[in-house]
Specification:
The chain is an all-alpha fold. The chain has helices at residues 2-17, 26-68, 79-98, 103-106, 112-126, 142-156, 160-187, 191-198, 203-208, 217-233; strands at residues 128-130, 137-139. β1 (128-130) and β2 form a beta hairpin. Residues 208-234 are annotated as: Disordered.
Amino acid sequence: MRQVLAAAQARNNAAASYVNDPMLSEAGNRQARARLAEQAKAAFDLTMDEVLESASRKVTTEVFTKALEHRPPFNRNDPAAAIITAQAWQFNVLPRLERGEQLVDVLKAADTDAVLGAERFAPAYLSGPRGSGLNAIFYDATDDVARAVTGRFIGLADSPEAAAAIEEAEHFHDDFDALLRTVQLVRRGDTASAIEAATLVGSTIAEAAPDARPEGDDAAGAGGASESVGESSA
């Protein structure tokens, strides 16, 4: 978090720290000040991108790969698997969704084929416009389906270790969303809110991008830095 705040502080202070060059005209100094601010913004954006990329790459390669070793596989190149999971969706899952049941409830006692079928077809079925007219918004059910499917796979796991690996991958989504929100708030200069948002970043992400989560002395340092960053952005 200290690295993130320092980058934000440098971005916000860049223009104010510029000292006019007596050899330049007023317009020349304005251009030089603008260039300095733009360079600071580019450096800040690079830092934010590196934080997100580091977390995403590490967790995706390590956490998801580990989870895939323990959850039931679906072979898209296997015609039999495609037929079985499609039938399980059509006869065991879809009718209950059409009656108004929630997917998470439908899958509570579902077998592997039904869960894999839901993973294949539920996102398209459940996604779509919500509301009407100008108030209509598109609802993307992908994340909700993933949580329901993963929750059932945890229940179907053949060992506590397998369940833990699958559950860790499930938490990644919420953890990464919290990290993304933290970075977005810092990008806008709302550092106080960013520090609060960072407390929601789970340990999986925090270990991959340690500067995104204040702890101990870093938290105190972040609190002090937030005042100066906020003042600079005002």
